[in-house]
Amino acid sequence: MDSLDACVDACPDGEKTAVELLCKDLLDAVDEHMMADRRWGRGSRQNAVLFETRVVLAIFFTPLIRKRGLKCAEAFRTELNRQWLERYPKQVWTPGDYDVMAGGFKRRKWCFITTATCTFEGKRDDCAELEAFRAFRDGWLTEHGGAALIAEYYDKAPGIVACIELCDRPEERYAEIRERWLAPCYRALQEQRPQECRECYVDMVRTLEKRYLQ
Questions:
Q1: Closest C-alpha to 205, from 144, 129, 133
Q2: Mean pLDDT, to the nearest integer, of 17-28?
Q3: What is the structure's pLDDT at 41?
Q4: How far apart are CA 73 and CA 19, in angstroms?
Q5: Within its chain, how far is the Cα of 135 from the centroid?
Q6: Cα–Cα dist 212/208, whole Å
Q7: Helices and strands counted in the chain (H then E)
Q8: pLDDT band at 98, cuts 50/70/90?
Q9: Which of 72, 107, 110, 142 is deepest in the core (most CB within 10 A)?
Q10: pLDDT digits (tens, 9 = 90+) for 123-158
Q11: What is the percent of the chain with per-residue pLDDT over 90, rounded to a whole number?
Q12: Distances in Å between the alpha carbon of 203 and those of 42, 63, 148?
């Protein structure tokens, strides 16, 4: 990775050309790697290979490029993303930032999927919906053997939200989360059906964990 700046500096045609060529070579190698995966030949499994690759590029590789402080970091990250989308326009991802992600995990900014969804929708952190879910978490769920579930959410939800933000289409995914899980959960709380809320929320976490983390 440290040789990237040296390659760019040595290119007689300048940074732009060097970065374009480096990204093309890298993605050619990525294509070769993906196509060698035994799942690639099965059309229904190609998306799994592509998703895993997007996670590596968005959550590990491009954040590391910036974290290393390379001179060509921003040009390289932007060009790599652009060339990928030219090859795979439906396989969207966004270059990540290590400090932003690490800060989100440390502050538990991404701990609950409800918070991420409401934030995306422009709702305040103290909106009635989030306050209701927090009261449910700290009250009924804790009092009815939910400590292990809460710990599991703290462990898994940040990774799920990072994948939604960087390796998916957030506007579509948060709309799905709202309609399929959060709205029914909130309605169950308002109608004094906490067990139903718990079951719905567990289904959400399990489904998203399977989609993004397994």
A1: 133
A2: 96
A3: 84
A4: 10
A5: 27
A6: 6
A7: 13, 0
A8: confident
A9: 110
A10: 998 999 999 999 999 999 999 998 998 888 888 888
A11: 71
A12: 28, 31, 15
Residue in the block written with tokens 């996670």: 55
What global pTM score does this model have? 0.78
Residue 176 near residue 119 (C-beta atoms within 8 A): no
Q: Which pair of tokens denotes residue 46?
A: 């190609």
The span from the CA of 36 to the CA of 34, in Å, is: 5
Query: Residue type at 69?
Result: G
Joined together, the tokens standing for residue 107 give 């502050």
Six-digit token pair at 12? 């007689």
Q: If 0-12 CB within 10 Å is exposed, 13-18 middle and 19+ buried, where does residue 23 land?
A: buried
* Angle at the Cα of 200 from the Cα atoms of 198 and 203, rounded to 5 degrees: 110
Look up residue 180 and give its DSSP letter. Answer: I
Tokens for 10? 């040595």
